[in-house]
Structures are given as C-alpha cells and as structure tokens.
Design brief:
Blueprint lengths: L11 H5 L2 E5 L7 H17 L6 H28 L1 E5 L2 E6 L5 E6 L5 E5 L2 H6 L2 E6 L6 E6 L2 H15 L1 H16 L1
Antiparallel strand pairs: 1-2, 2-3, 3-4, 5-6, 6-7
Amino acid sequence: MSNPTVAYEPAPTEAAEPVVVRLRRHGRVLFMPTLALIGVATAWGFFSEGFPELWMNLVFWLLSALLVIVLWVFPLVTWLGNRVIITTRRVIIYRGIMTRSKQEVLYGRIHDVTVRQNAVQAVFGAGDLLLNTGAEAPIRLFDLPKANLVLSALSELVDSQAPLSAQLRRDDQRWTNEY
C-alpha cells in the first residue's frame, strides 16, 4: 500500500517557533481613502445619468472608476500587503505588492527597541517601532497599533534570547534608579 500524501506539512522551524502576534499598520491610514471613496460614490450618485450626451456619461464613469482605483483600492492593497510577524525567535517584515520583500531579524541581533510617536499616533495609541541592530541603520516598523504593548512584548522576547544584554540593561536601570 502506498502512503497517503499530505498537502501541507509544516517545516520543523514553524512547529518550533510559535507566532506571538501578527501586525499591520494602524487602520486609521485607511480613513482618508475611505472618505475619498464616499466622495466619489456621492458624486457618482449625484451626476450619474445627469449629462446630456452619452460620451459625457462614459467619461464621468471612467473617471469615477479611475479615482476609486487610485484613491481607495491601491491604498487598501498596499495596507494589506505590508505586515509584521513577531515570533518567539525573530521579527519577520513583509513589504510590497507586486515585488515582495521579506526581512528577518533575530532577537540576538537586536540591541535596543524604541517607540516614536507623533501627536496623532499618540492619540490612537500607535507608534513607529525602531529596532536597533548595531551596525546598520535601525529597522523602522511604521505606525503599529498598540505600540507600547508591542514594545514591552518585544523587550521581553529580546531579553529572553540575549541574557547578557538583558543583565546589562537591568544593571543600568538599577544604577540610574539608585542615583
């Protein structure tokens, strides 16, 4: 008898590496595109079939469709195409729509995790996460929701993977708190 084939068998690293969280940019980046969609739909409802000539109606419909694609579909697909996956061993960053790029950063390479927030991001609890790996420029994760929670989780995960850097960081915090 032949052995049945399995359609998908997880790789050994996937089984040993559980996903902590999957993130995208904060959803508020879709607010303006959604307003543009509502505006185009309102204009379409108001002006649809309102022009005296057929060619004017066709031009209006084509312009409306083009505006919907440029102002709403493209930002939505871009938002869906970029994501960050945090596992117990690394941070995986996927970027791009047509040309995909995947960047992986092991926790052993991360020296420092920082959150930067502007005023709008602070109101919504979002922020940019900077992963300092030492030699290169920091890796920037744009506009993540609940940035402070992600910061504390990443700091814990980085400390568990790099005990020496965690000990140095704790010693530094004790020294600054004592004096």
